[in-house]
Amino acid sequence: MSTQPKEESLSPDDRDFVTALASGLDVILAFDSDNPRMTLSEVAAKTGMNRARARRFLLTLHALGYVRKQNRQFELAPKALQLGYAYLSANNYRSVIQQHLEDITQTLGESSSLGVLDGNEVMYVARSSAPHRLMAITLSIGTRLPAVATSMGRVLMAYLPEDEREALLEKTELKPYTEHTITDRQALRECLADVRRQGYCIVDQELDSGLRSLAVPAFDANGKLLGAINISTNAARIDMQTLTDKFLPLLLEKTRQIQMQVT
Questions:
Q1: Which residues 6+ apart lie within 8 Å of 9 measured at CB?
Q2: Among residues of the chain, what percentage have pLDDT more than 90?
Q3: SS3 assignment, position 180
Q4: Mean pLDDT computed over every residue of the chain
Q5: What domains are there in the chain, each with its CATH number?
C-alpha cells in the first residue's frame, strides 16, 4: 500500500503566507476545554500576541460571528462549529468508516475510533463508544491526544515520510504519562519502525494506567492513508494475546473492507 507524495507547505516567511489568517486561526484554537472563556489579556498570553493585535482579531471574529463577548470575557460562538463541519462534510468516507466502527463495537463490545494526525497530536474524527469508560477524560470527535503515546498516533507517525517523522520526533516532548511510557527517543524510533514493518501498533498503558489499545492504518482504494483505526480496552479485562489473536484480525478485515469501499 502506498502513501501520498509529500506535499509542499509554505513557511511563515514565504511571500504567499497570509500571517493575518494564521493569527486569526491561532486565536480560534486558543479556546479549548481548559480555556472555554478568556479575557483579552488571557488570549494575548496564550497566543503570544500583544494585546492590541489580539484585540483586533477577537473583534474581527466577533463581527463575523465566530466569537461572542460577555462583559470582559470572550468565547467561541456556535458558528465556529461550521469550520469543523466543513472538514467532516468534505470527507464523506466517514459515514462508511463509522458503520465499520459500530460493527466493531457490536462484535467485541469495545470502543473503536478513527484518528488523523494534526501536528504532534492525534485527533478523533469518528468514534463508536462502548458503554464502559476507559479514561478519566471523555473521548469524542475532536478530542486530541499526544500522538507519541497512543496506538493511532504511532501508526500515523510510522507512515509519515522519514524526514517528517524525524522532525516530529525531535520537536515533541516525550512525557512519562505512566510508568510504562516510552520516553527514550531512540526506543521510540525503533518502535515506529516495528509498527511500519508489522502494519499495526499496540500501546499498553503508556498514556493512561489500565488503557490498552490496538491500531492499524486505514487506506482508500488508491492507497491514500485516511487515518488510523483503533480498538481501546481495559488491560485488566483483555490480555495481549486476545488483542493479537481476536481483535487484530477483525480490525485488519475492517480496514480491508474500507479500502474496497472508499475511492
A1: none
A2: 70
A3: coil
A4: 89
A5: 19-80 (1.10.10.10), 91-261 (3.30.450.40)
